[in-house]
Structures are given as C-alpha cells and as structure tokens.
Amino acid sequence: MKKTLIYIIVAAVLVGLAAYKIVNNKKEQTATVAEVAKTVEKINVNIEKVKYEHINTEYTANGNFIPKAETNLASEIAGKVISVNVKEGSRVGAGQVVAVIKKDAIEVDVTQAQNNLQNAIIDNQRYENAFKTGGVTKQQLDQSRLQLKNAQAAVRAQNVKVNNANVTAGISGTINKRMVEPGAVVSPGTPLFEIVNINTLKLSVLVDESQVGRLALGQSVDIKVNSIGDETITGKITFIAPKSDASLNFPVEIEVANNGKLKAGMYGTAIFKTSNGGETQSILTVPATAFVNGVSSGQLFINDNGVAKMIKVSVGKVYGDRVHILSGLKEGDEVITSGQINLDNGYKINIVK
C-alpha cells in the first residue's frame, strides 16, 4: 500500500514538472517572436499600379480536321466476293456499286420462296372458298391468311438479299481503305471499305468555359493551318456542345469548305474574335504574380498607406502574364507583386519598387 502511494506521488511530481516546462518554453517562444517583430518593422515588397492596357483579346484553340461525312461499308450477306470495282483513292458516288458478292445460293432461296408463295396463294384461295360454304372454321381461315403473309414476307426478304449482293456506297466520297479482295468469303458485318467525304471538313476544337459564352452558331472563324502555309481559311461554327468535358472545356466544330489542300487529320488553329470584332481591347489588368495562391484564388495584397491589405477580386481571362480584373480594383490602386510570402493582413511594408 505504501509503495502504491509513493508511485502516485512520484507520478504527480513528474507531471507537474512537465507542465511547468511547457509553459516556460511557450513564454520564451512568445518573447522571441516579439523581439523579432521589434527588429523587423517593415517587409520589403515590390508594387505595381493597376492600369488599363490594350490587350489582344483574340482567343485561339487548336484541333484536328475531321470529315463531315464518313462511313464504314460492311457486307450485309454471306458469300464469295466475285468482283471489286474500286481501289483506295477512288472517288465514288452514293449508290454506286463498289463490289459484287456471288448470289447463286441466294437465287435458289428466292426460287424456293416464290414456290412457297404460290402454294400459299392456292391454299388460301381454297380456304376462302370453303369458309363461304362452312367447310372450314374461321380459325383455319385466319391460319391460312397468316401463312400467305409469311410467304410474301419471305419473298421480299430474299429479294433484299439479292439486291445486297451488289454492295453500294452509302455516301459520295473517296475510298480511304479497301479491306476486301476478289475471291474473299465474307459474312454479314465483314468490313469492306472505309469511305470519307472531305469536300467539307470540320475542325474539332475544345473551348474554355470562360470563352464559350462568346460563341454562336453560324459565327465566322478564321483558321490557320501551318502545313499549307500562311493562308487563312474561314469557316462557320456548326456545333457547340451543350455540356463540358471533365476539364470544363466545350467541344466546338467549325465547318470549312475544302480548298483542295486540306486533308482529314491535319492540325489547325481556330482564331475566335472578340464580341466587338476588334483584335485589342482596353481592359484593367494586373500582373499574375500579384495573386496569392494562384490567379484562381482571386486574392492579392494592396498597399493601403504603407500597410499590406489582403482583398479578393473578380478576375477574367489571363492574357500571357496579365490578368483581366472584372471588379474589386480601380485604376491607380497599388498591388503588391513580390514579397507576399512574408506578408499577413495589416503588416507594414517597405516599397522597394
């Protein structure tokens, strides 16, 4: 019992000593901070006055040209290819026969379907006459009529297969890929040709959410294509996605007439003009370096009679190293552009520049 009491007393003494040490250390730290604060009265900073600048506000977006129309042509029946009428690079028109599949077996099926139809017609006529005299029931007559309809449908289906033996182009364009040769045996769904129409192309680009509101369907857009020189091509916006992707970019398509030099897959740059049609605007700007924790934070320090004051502003688009200020600042205000890492709200500052 005595040992237990001794242990308790010793533990209490140790806890008391630890608490005293912590309090004493905190007092020493506070005193040190106060002493440093007396030594460093002002923080050196650079400043810049807020001003209006003439900024090139054109917005550019890069993308690739895609065909306005393209299709993958596949076989719709099974059989042996007996002729291929085009090669890669051939121009074709919609409905043109590009390949022929042997149809001997299909024609046999057509003959059989036609024979079945004739039998169904004869049987149905017999049932129709017999029903008038009460020789068959209404149910038997209905069954006969159904068999006749099925036989007619079978003939139509076989005729479709005969027509599909002639493989035709679904669109006008150019054979980009030929994936079949004479003698090949194909099944329904076997790829045969890839056809693209590049008389008209679409430049597919992604537009930032801050810019998409400026765009409208039918709007003219200049396009630069480095691979064809300095020539500028003009297109029109035909599609603006109603929903952004995960990066808050909106797919936009610009349709252009092919001048004979463009090809699908080429790289192009769309140049979107500002709403006022000009290339430059006078806008209120500050350097991007003025912002604390990046431009997206909207936070920066201003010089308030020798004291750092943190404020929050509304920002627009970033043009190079300049940021458009929508609200929160006025011309002539002084923003701190360096030294912010050492600042807090209310700190005194020494302006170096």
UniProtKB/TrEMBL annotation:
Keywords attached to this entry: Coiled coil
Residue stretches making up the Multidrug resistance protein MdtA-like barrel-sandwich hybrid domain: 73-196
Similarity-based family: Belongs to the membrane fusion protein (MFP) (TC 8.A.1) family.
Domain spans labelled CusB-like beta-barrel: 204-274
Coiled-coil residue spans: 103-161
Signal peptide: none
Organism: Chryseobacterium oryctis
Official protein name in the record: Efflux RND transporter periplasmic adaptor subunit
Keyword Phosphoprotein: no
This protein's record includes keyword Coiled coil: yes
